[in-house]
Amino acid sequence: CCPLFYDEGYVRLGSAKGVYARNYVRFYERIRDFQVHSDDIWVASFPKCGTTWTQEMVWCIVNDLDFEGAKVGLQKRFPYFELRANWSPNLTKMITQTVLEGSKSEGQPNENEDNENSDSNREFFLNSFNLVENLSRPRFVKTHLHYSLLPEALKNENSPKMIYVARNPKDACTSFYHHSCLLDGYSGSLEDFVDAFTSDNVFCAPFWTHLREFWEVRDRKNVLFIKYEDMKKDLPSIIRQTAEFVGKSLTDEQVKILEKHLSFESMKNNPSVNYEDIVGNMRKMHGTAHDSKFMRKGKVGSWKDEMTPEMVAKLDAWIAENNIDGLYES
Ligand code: A3P
Protein backbone atom coordinates (compact mmCIF):
# COMPACT_ATOMS: atom_id res chain seq x y z
CA CYS A 1 0.00 0.00 0.00
CA CYS A 2 2.79 2.44 0.78
CA PRO A 3 6.33 2.12 -0.55
CA LEU A 4 7.72 4.11 2.37
CA PHE A 5 6.72 1.44 4.81
CA TYR A 6 8.01 -1.40 2.74
CA ASP A 7 11.25 0.11 1.54
CA GLU A 8 13.82 -1.06 4.07
CA GLY A 9 16.27 1.50 2.76
CA TYR A 10 13.92 4.33 3.54
CA VAL A 11 12.50 3.61 6.93
CA ARG A 12 13.49 0.77 9.18
CA LEU A 13 11.48 1.09 12.29
CA GLY A 14 12.95 -1.03 15.00
CA SER A 15 16.07 -2.86 15.96
CA ALA A 16 14.50 -6.17 14.97
CA LYS A 17 14.76 -5.04 11.34
CA GLY A 18 11.44 -4.70 9.61
CA VAL A 19 9.30 -5.94 12.47
CA TYR A 20 8.07 -2.49 13.41
CA ALA A 21 7.75 -1.58 9.76
CA ARG A 22 5.39 -4.51 9.27
CA ASN A 23 3.33 -3.32 12.22
CA TYR A 24 3.04 0.12 10.71
CA VAL A 25 1.74 -1.34 7.50
CA ARG A 26 -1.21 -2.70 9.46
CA PHE A 27 -2.11 0.81 10.56
CA TYR A 28 -1.01 2.70 7.48
CA GLU A 29 -4.47 3.79 6.30
CA ARG A 30 -5.59 4.69 9.79
CA ILE A 31 -2.59 7.01 10.09
CA ARG A 32 -2.71 8.44 6.57
CA ASP A 33 -6.41 9.31 6.77
CA PHE A 34 -6.49 10.43 10.39
CA GLN A 35 -8.66 13.56 10.72
CA VAL A 36 -7.06 16.57 12.33
CA HIS A 37 -8.61 19.73 13.77
CA SER A 38 -7.37 23.23 13.07
CA ASP A 39 -6.74 23.82 16.79
CA ASP A 40 -4.75 20.60 17.33
CA ILE A 41 -1.18 21.03 18.52
CA TRP A 42 1.32 18.33 17.54
CA VAL A 43 4.78 17.86 19.03
CA ALA A 44 7.06 15.79 16.81
CA SER A 45 10.57 14.47 17.39
CA PHE A 46 12.99 11.65 16.96
CA PRO A 47 12.89 9.68 20.26
CA LYS A 48 14.99 11.02 23.15
CA CYS A 49 15.38 14.52 21.75
CA GLY A 50 13.41 16.41 24.40
CA THR A 51 9.85 15.44 23.44
CA THR A 52 8.52 15.31 27.00
CA TRP A 53 10.13 18.62 27.92
CA THR A 54 8.64 20.28 24.83
CA GLN A 55 5.22 18.71 25.42
CA GLU A 56 5.06 20.05 28.98
CA MET A 57 6.18 23.51 27.82
CA VAL A 58 3.59 23.64 25.05
CA TRP A 59 0.74 22.30 27.20
CA CYS A 60 1.42 24.80 29.97
CA ILE A 61 1.66 27.75 27.58
CA VAL A 62 -1.54 26.92 25.71
CA ASN A 63 -3.38 26.26 28.99
CA ASP A 64 -2.34 29.56 30.55
CA LEU A 65 -0.03 27.94 33.10
CA ASP A 66 -2.73 25.73 34.57
CA PHE A 67 -0.42 23.84 36.93
CA GLU A 68 -3.39 22.21 38.65
CA GLY A 69 -4.54 20.72 35.31
CA ALA A 70 -0.94 19.75 34.61
CA LYS A 71 -1.10 17.27 37.49
CA VAL A 72 -2.91 14.87 35.15
CA GLY A 73 -0.39 12.46 33.60
CA LEU A 74 1.18 13.82 30.42
CA GLN A 75 0.30 10.60 28.59
CA LYS A 76 -3.38 11.52 29.10
CA ARG A 77 -3.06 15.23 28.37
CA PHE A 78 -0.73 14.77 25.43
CA PRO A 79 -0.90 11.16 24.18
CA TYR A 80 1.46 9.38 21.84
CA PHE A 81 -0.41 9.16 18.54
CA GLU A 82 1.01 6.02 16.90
CA LEU A 83 1.84 4.06 20.04
CA ARG A 84 -0.63 1.35 18.98
CA ALA A 85 1.34 0.81 15.78
CA ASN A 86 4.56 0.17 17.70
CA TRP A 87 3.40 -3.15 19.09
CA SER A 88 3.73 -6.37 17.16
CA PRO A 89 1.03 -8.99 17.84
CA ASN A 90 3.45 -10.66 20.27
CA LEU A 91 4.14 -7.44 22.13
CA THR A 92 0.42 -6.71 22.21
CA LYS A 93 -0.07 -10.08 23.84
CA MET A 94 2.72 -9.43 26.35
CA ILE A 95 1.32 -6.03 27.25
CA THR A 96 -2.17 -7.43 27.60
CA GLN A 97 -1.00 -10.22 29.85
CA THR A 98 1.68 -8.51 31.90
CA VAL A 99 0.61 -4.91 32.11
CA LEU A 100 -3.14 -4.83 31.63
CA GLU A 101 -4.40 -8.06 33.10
CA GLY A 102 -1.54 -9.47 35.14
CA SER A 103 -0.26 -12.98 34.65
CA LYS A 104 -3.77 -14.51 34.89
CA SER A 105 -4.62 -13.87 31.24
CA GLU A 106 -3.88 -16.60 28.76
CA GLY A 107 -5.73 -14.85 25.94
CA GLN A 108 -4.66 -14.05 22.43
CA PRO A 109 -4.09 -10.42 21.47
CA ASN A 110 -7.36 -8.80 20.59
CA GLU A 111 -6.97 -7.21 17.19
CA ASN A 112 -10.43 -5.61 17.50
CA GLU A 113 -9.69 -3.81 20.69
CA ASP A 114 -10.85 -0.58 19.09
CA ASN A 115 -14.41 -1.67 19.83
CA GLU A 116 -13.79 -2.33 23.46
CA ASN A 117 -14.88 -0.22 26.30
CA SER A 118 -11.36 0.43 27.54
CA ASP A 119 -9.98 1.57 30.81
CA SER A 120 -7.39 4.31 30.70
CA ASN A 121 -4.36 2.01 30.78
CA ARG A 122 -5.73 -0.01 27.90
CA GLU A 123 -6.51 3.22 26.03
CA PHE A 124 -2.96 4.40 26.54
CA PHE A 125 -1.23 1.19 25.54
CA LEU A 126 -3.52 -0.26 22.90
CA ASN A 127 -5.96 2.32 21.60
CA SER A 128 -3.79 5.35 20.99
CA PHE A 129 -5.60 6.36 17.78
CA ASN A 130 -8.97 6.28 19.54
CA LEU A 131 -7.54 8.08 22.51
CA VAL A 132 -6.32 10.95 20.33
CA GLU A 133 -9.48 10.96 18.23
CA ASN A 134 -11.65 11.41 21.31
CA LEU A 135 -9.60 14.01 23.17
CA SER A 136 -11.41 17.20 24.00
CA ARG A 137 -10.28 20.19 21.96
CA PRO A 138 -7.78 21.62 21.61
CA ARG A 139 -6.07 18.26 21.26
CA PHE A 140 -2.39 17.85 22.14
CA VAL A 141 -0.67 15.05 20.27
CA LYS A 142 2.85 13.61 20.41
CA THR A 143 4.36 11.75 17.48
CA HIS A 144 7.68 10.17 16.53
CA LEU A 145 6.60 9.54 12.93
CA HIS A 146 8.72 10.83 10.10
CA TYR A 147 7.11 13.84 8.44
CA SER A 148 6.40 11.83 5.31
CA LEU A 149 4.54 9.22 7.36
CA LEU A 150 2.23 11.66 9.14
CA PRO A 151 -1.50 11.97 8.42
CA GLU A 152 -1.92 13.72 5.07
CA ALA A 153 -4.03 16.43 6.70
CA LEU A 154 -0.98 17.61 8.62
CA LYS A 155 1.05 18.39 5.54
CA ASN A 156 -0.19 21.68 4.16
CA GLU A 157 0.14 25.35 5.09
CA ASN A 158 -3.27 25.35 6.74
CA SER A 159 -2.59 22.30 8.86
CA PRO A 160 -2.62 22.51 12.65
CA LYS A 161 0.43 23.79 14.48
CA MET A 162 3.37 21.43 14.85
CA ILE A 163 6.47 21.88 16.99
CA TYR A 164 9.53 19.79 16.14
CA VAL A 165 12.34 19.40 18.66
CA ALA A 166 15.79 18.28 17.50
CA ARG A 167 18.81 17.13 19.54
CA ASN A 168 22.44 16.47 18.74
CA PRO A 169 22.88 12.85 17.64
CA LYS A 170 25.51 11.90 20.23
CA ASP A 171 23.27 12.83 23.16
CA ALA A 172 20.21 11.40 21.42
CA CYS A 173 22.09 8.12 20.92
CA THR A 174 23.28 7.97 24.56
CA SER A 175 19.83 8.78 25.88
CA PHE A 176 18.24 6.25 23.51
CA TYR A 177 20.62 3.54 24.70
CA HIS A 178 19.53 4.04 28.31
CA HIS A 179 15.90 4.27 27.30
CA SER A 180 16.18 0.99 25.39
CA CYS A 181 17.75 -0.76 28.40
CA LEU A 182 15.16 0.70 30.73
CA LEU A 183 11.99 0.32 28.69
CA ASP A 184 12.55 -2.02 25.78
CA GLY A 185 14.49 -4.87 27.36
CA TYR A 186 17.68 -4.08 25.40
CA SER A 187 20.63 -5.93 26.90
CA GLY A 188 23.44 -5.07 24.47
CA SER A 189 26.39 -2.77 25.12
CA LEU A 190 26.58 0.94 24.35
CA GLU A 191 29.11 0.04 21.66
CA ASP A 192 26.56 -2.23 19.97
CA PHE A 193 23.95 0.45 20.31
CA VAL A 194 26.18 3.04 18.61
CA ASP A 195 26.60 0.57 15.75
CA ALA A 196 22.84 0.13 15.51
CA PHE A 197 22.21 3.88 15.74
CA THR A 198 24.70 4.76 13.02
CA SER A 199 23.45 2.01 10.74
CA ASP A 200 19.81 3.10 11.10
CA ASN A 201 18.79 0.01 12.98
CA VAL A 202 17.04 1.63 15.91
CA PHE A 203 13.38 2.41 16.37
CA CYS A 204 12.26 5.37 14.24
CA ALA A 205 15.50 5.41 12.21
CA PRO A 206 16.92 6.82 10.03
CA PHE A 207 17.78 9.69 12.34
CA TRP A 208 18.91 11.99 9.52
CA THR A 209 15.86 11.45 7.37
CA HIS A 210 13.69 12.26 10.36
CA LEU A 211 15.58 15.48 10.99
CA ARG A 212 15.84 16.47 7.33
CA GLU A 213 12.15 16.06 6.57
CA PHE A 214 11.14 18.43 9.38
CA TRP A 215 14.05 20.80 8.67
CA GLU A 216 12.79 21.18 5.11
CA VAL A 217 9.36 22.37 6.26
CA ARG A 218 10.63 24.54 9.13
CA ASP A 219 9.60 27.80 7.44
CA ARG A 220 5.96 26.86 7.05
CA LYS A 221 3.74 29.06 9.14
CA ASN A 222 2.31 26.08 11.00
CA VAL A 223 5.73 24.63 11.91
CA LEU A 224 8.12 25.65 14.69
CA PHE A 225 11.54 23.97 14.71
CA ILE A 226 13.42 24.14 18.02
CA LYS A 227 16.55 22.52 19.43
CA TYR A 228 17.14 20.82 22.79
CA GLU A 229 20.46 22.64 23.06
CA ASP A 230 18.73 26.03 22.73
CA MET A 231 16.24 25.06 25.43
CA LYS A 232 19.18 24.27 27.70
CA LYS A 233 20.97 27.51 26.80
CA ASP A 234 18.09 29.94 27.03
CA LEU A 235 14.77 28.41 28.00
CA PRO A 236 12.98 31.77 28.50
CA SER A 237 13.66 32.66 24.83
CA ILE A 238 12.26 29.35 23.63
CA ILE A 239 9.23 29.77 25.92
CA ARG A 240 8.56 33.20 24.40
CA GLN A 241 9.10 31.96 20.86
CA THR A 242 6.71 29.06 21.45
CA ALA A 243 4.14 31.31 23.08
CA GLU A 244 4.19 33.63 20.09
CA PHE A 245 3.86 30.66 17.76
CA VAL A 246 0.74 29.39 19.53
CA GLY A 247 -0.74 32.88 19.85
CA LYS A 248 -0.23 33.47 23.56
CA SER A 249 1.51 36.29 25.33
CA LEU A 250 3.25 35.75 28.65
CA THR A 251 4.49 38.32 31.15
CA ASP A 252 8.11 38.17 32.30
CA GLU A 253 6.85 36.85 35.62
CA GLN A 254 4.93 34.04 33.92
CA VAL A 255 7.98 33.12 31.86
CA LYS A 256 10.00 32.87 35.07
CA ILE A 257 7.38 30.68 36.76
CA LEU A 258 7.20 28.39 33.75
CA GLU A 259 10.98 28.21 33.48
CA LYS A 260 11.06 26.93 37.06
CA HIS A 261 8.30 24.38 36.39
CA LEU A 262 10.24 23.12 33.35
CA SER A 263 13.62 22.88 35.07
CA PHE A 264 15.20 19.42 35.03
CA GLU A 265 15.02 19.12 38.82
CA SER A 266 11.36 20.04 38.86
CA MET A 267 10.42 17.68 36.02
CA LYS A 268 12.49 14.87 37.49
CA ASN A 269 10.39 15.08 40.66
CA ASN A 270 7.07 15.65 38.92
CA PRO A 271 5.14 12.36 38.73
CA SER A 272 2.84 13.67 36.01
CA VAL A 273 5.73 13.97 33.52
CA ASN A 274 8.38 11.47 34.58
CA TYR A 275 6.50 8.36 33.40
CA GLU A 276 7.23 6.41 36.58
CA ASP A 277 4.14 4.23 36.22
CA ILE A 278 4.86 3.43 32.58
CA VAL A 279 8.51 2.74 33.30
CA GLY A 280 7.39 0.40 36.12
CA ASN A 281 5.01 -1.44 33.79
CA MET A 282 7.55 -1.83 31.01
CA ARG A 283 10.23 -3.03 33.43
CA LYS A 284 7.76 -5.60 34.72
CA MET A 285 7.02 -6.73 31.19
CA HIS A 286 10.65 -7.10 30.15
CA GLY A 287 11.97 -8.15 33.56
CA THR A 288 14.45 -5.27 33.31
CA ALA A 289 16.91 -4.50 36.07
CA HIS A 290 18.53 -1.46 34.40
CA ASP A 291 19.11 1.18 37.03
CA SER A 292 18.01 4.41 35.37
CA LYS A 293 15.08 6.80 35.18
CA PHE A 294 13.19 8.39 32.31
CA MET A 295 14.54 11.80 33.43
CA ARG A 296 18.16 10.70 33.42
CA LYS A 297 20.83 13.43 33.08
CA GLY A 298 19.12 16.25 31.23
CA LYS A 299 22.44 17.64 29.95
CA VAL A 300 24.09 18.66 26.72
CA GLY A 301 27.17 16.49 26.21
CA SER A 302 26.38 13.57 28.52
CA TRP A 303 27.83 11.31 25.79
CA LYS A 304 31.26 12.46 26.98
CA ASP A 305 30.76 10.57 30.26
CA GLU A 306 30.20 7.24 28.56
CA MET A 307 31.51 6.97 25.04
CA THR A 308 34.94 5.62 24.19
CA PRO A 309 37.09 7.47 21.60
CA GLU A 310 36.16 4.72 19.09
CA MET A 311 32.44 5.31 19.55
CA VAL A 312 32.90 9.07 19.28
CA ALA A 313 34.95 8.63 16.08
CA LYS A 314 32.23 6.49 14.57
CA LEU A 315 29.51 9.01 15.40
CA ASP A 316 31.66 11.94 14.24
CA ALA A 317 32.24 10.34 10.86
CA TRP A 318 28.52 9.62 10.55
CA ILE A 319 27.65 13.22 11.47
CA ALA A 320 30.19 14.61 9.00
CA GLU A 321 28.70 12.45 6.26
CA ASN A 322 25.05 13.29 6.94
CA ASN A 323 24.86 16.66 8.65
CA ILE A 324 22.20 19.04 7.37
CA ASP A 325 23.19 22.68 6.83
CA GLY A 326 25.68 22.46 9.71
CA LEU A 327 22.80 21.83 12.12
CA TYR A 328 24.96 19.59 14.31
CA GLU A 329 28.74 19.61 14.30
CA SER A 330 30.90 16.54 14.84
P1 A3P B 1 18.83 12.21 28.93
O1 A3P B 1 18.57 10.74 28.83
O2 A3P B 1 20.04 12.65 28.16
O3 A3P B 1 18.87 12.69 30.34
P2 A3P B 1 12.26 12.39 25.28
O4 A3P B 1 11.27 13.08 26.13
O5 A3P B 1 12.25 12.79 23.85
O6 A3P B 1 12.22 10.92 25.49
O7 A3P B 1 13.72 12.88 25.77
C1 A3P B 1 14.22 12.46 27.00
C2 A3P B 1 15.48 13.24 27.28
O8 A3P B 1 15.11 14.61 27.61
C3 A3P B 1 16.22 12.69 28.49
O9 A3P B 1 17.60 12.96 28.23
C4 A3P B 1 15.66 13.55 29.60
O10 A3P B 1 16.43 13.57 30.77
C5 A3P B 1 15.63 14.90 28.90
N1 A3P B 1 14.77 15.88 29.60
C6 A3P B 1 13.47 15.74 29.95
N2 A3P B 1 13.05 16.80 30.63
C7 A3P B 1 14.10 17.66 30.69
C8 A3P B 1 14.30 18.94 31.29
N3 A3P B 1 13.34 19.55 31.96
N4 A3P B 1 15.51 19.52 31.15
C9 A3P B 1 16.51 18.91 30.47
N5 A3P B 1 16.38 17.68 29.90
C10 A3P B 1 15.19 17.07 30.02
Automatic annotation (TrEMBL):
Region Disordered: what ranges? 101-120
Q: Does Lipid biosynthesis appear among the keywords?
A: no
Q: Which UniProt keywords apply?
A: Transferase
SUPFAM superfamilies assigned to the protein according to its UniProt record, in alphabetical order: P-loop containing nucleoside triphosphate hydrolases
A Pfam family that this protein carries is Sulfotransfer_1
Q: Matching Gene3D superfamilies, A to Z?
A: P-loop containing nucleotide triphosphate hydrolases
| Domain Sulfotransferase: residue ranges | 39-322
User: Which protein family is named in the record?
Assistant: Belongs to the sulfotransferase 1 family.
The protein's name = Sulfotransferase domain-containing protein
- The scientific name of the source species is Orchesella dallaii
Q: What is the lineage of its organism?
A: Eukaryota, Metazoa, Ecdysozoa, Arthropoda, Hexapoda
